[in-house]
Amino acid sequence: MKYLSTLVLTLALSVSSLSFAQSKLAHIDFQKLVSEMPSVLAAQEEVQKLEKDYQTEIEASIKEYQTKLQTYSAEAENQTDVTNQARQQELAGMEQNIQQFRQTAAQDIQKKQADLLRPIIENARAKVQEIAKAQGFDYVLDSSMGGSVMMAGGKDLEPDVKKALGI
User: Fold this and answer.
1) The domain containing residue 69 runs over which residues?
2) What is the CATH number of the domain that holds 49?
């Protein structure tokens, strides 16, 4: 009985190691690949331009707020309580509008960045899959920094994918 269970265990281990040995693995630093694509650089420039536009608008709003604050503070002694309260409410509304605009701008920038990068990343993934399939690899591991892939050689698909993407 002991002999039979040892034989079954040995046979099972042999079969599992054979199936693993037949799987071909490759790796690629996907983050590096994507960051070196010219279309990513163009997308980053577009996002930076949008950020700059929003920042200019925010700075103009802050400057207007500060000007009104200084004017209202200087004139506060000569105004009625009702006028001063109305001015305080106006300033509070301006402050709230600036905060809301900042939040909206940040959301718009994130959305724009995602919209620009999504097709680029999908294209890169498709090329990785295409190259891996053409070279007969079953699995491609992402070896980007912070990943859990330990490298001990193996095929790096990055040069082939870069060539296919025209980088």
Assistant:
1) 24-165
2) 3.30.910
Whether residue 3 is contained in a domain is answered as no
pTM over 0.85: no
Would you tell me how many other CB atoms lie within 10 Å of the CB of residue 27?
Answer: 21
Name the more confident of 161 and 91.
Answer: 91
Total count of domains within the chain: 1
**Per-residue confidence (pLDDT) for residue 48, from 0 to 100:** 97
Give the separation between CA 46 and CA 149, rounded to whole angstroms: 33
Residues with Cβ within 8 Å of residue 149, at least 6 apart in sequence:
27, 141, 142, 143
Tokens 């199936």: give the residue. Answer: 19
